[in-house]
Specification:
This protein is 38% helix and 19% strand. It is globular. The chain has two domains: 2-32 and 167-250, 3-Layer(aba) Sandwich (Rossmann fold), CATH 3.40.50.10090; 35-164, Rossmann fold, CATH 3.40.50.10090. The chain has helices spanning 9-21, 41-48, 61-68, 88-96, 116-123, 144-151, 171-182, 194-203, 220-229, 241-250; strands at residues 2-5, 25-28, 33-35, 55-58, 82-84, 104-105, 132-137, 155-160, 163-165, 187-191, 214-217, 233-236. By secondary structure, it is α/β, with parallel strands linked by helices. The model has no long low-confidence stretch (mean pLDDT 95). Strands 2-1-10-11-12 form a five-stranded parallel sheet, with helices on both faces.
């Protein structure tokens, strides 16, 4: 059984390596394209005003990478600014780029999900009245966390650091997509985003065997979208590596 990892390319490569280290046959088929913005002046300006923020919230490792790509030379993360992360991957990206772990706010390690709701459970312990908060994300996205912070009194600004798109598949990726749709029983899809499922539907509009395909989804909303596409067998797992591995191992080839 071949595990198809659908995260954006950079994260997909890490997950493939981790799954293979656990003895699983995993391959990458990134279903969300990540592109740099043509105009990055707002990113540069945000760095120069960074010390004015109380919190900078990053939606993903890609948000971290594209934001830090425009850090002025020699500039350290301000000691007065917190960085919010929705999960371990984003936290690793932040600390690797010099944000002290003591300044990172993330969901509890045993949280049922690594998402905005679990992150808010930690952020709500802080005082946000009149605090300036910057949300670093792609072009668009869910506003739930921003709404909670605003309701708590924060002054919210959003900053697009990259653009998401339907990916342009290489010849090898197109061959993998064809194999997975032609022989669904031999493959297991690993979904960590509803947008990846939307893009899958766009990339394989003629596919008709979704009712024979199987998937693991790392959030109930993602599982619901997979079922909506037609997947009859969708198993939910916590987004932590150990939980995903255990879930995959429980599914019979």
């Amino acid at each position: 059984m071949r595990i198809i990892v659908t995260r954006p390319a950079a994260q997909a490569a890490d997950w493939v390596a981790d799954l293979r280290a656990h003895g699983l046959t995993a391959v990458a088929l990134p279903l969300i394209g990540i592109e740099a913005l043509a105009d990055t002046s707002a990113l540069v300006a945000a760095w120069h005003a960074l010390a004015q923020q109380r919190l900078v919230s990053f939606v993903s490792p890609n948000a971290v990478q594209h934001f830090f790509a425009h850090r002025p030379a020699g500039m350290a993360w301000p000691a007065t600014v917190l960085a919010a992360s929705p999960g371990p991957g984003t936290t690793r990206a932040l600390t690797a780029l010099g944000v002290p772990m003591a300044q990172v706010v993330e969901p509890a390690a045993d949280a049922a999900q690594f998402d905005s709701e679990s992150l808010w459970a930690q952020l709500r312990r802080h005082e946000w009245q009149a605090a300036r908060v910057l949300i670093v994300r792609g072009d668009g996205g869910r506003d739930w966390l921003a709404d909670q912070l605003r309701d708590a009194g924060a002054q919210i600004a959003r900053l697009a650091a990259y653009r998401r798109c339907v990916p342009q598949l290489s010849a090898a990726e197109q061959a993998l997509l064809h194999a997975a749709t032609a022989a669904p029983e031999a493959h297991l899809w690993l979904f960590s985003s509803s947008e990846a499922i939307d893009n899958l539907a766009a990339l394989a509009p003629a596919a008709t065997a979704w009712d024979r395909a199987r998937a693991v989804a790392t959030h109930p909303r993602i599982a619901a979208r997979a079922r909506q596409l037609g997947f009859a067998s969708v198993t939910e797992a916590r987004p932590a590596l150990a939980a995903v591995v255990a879930c995959i191992q429980s599914i019979r080839p």
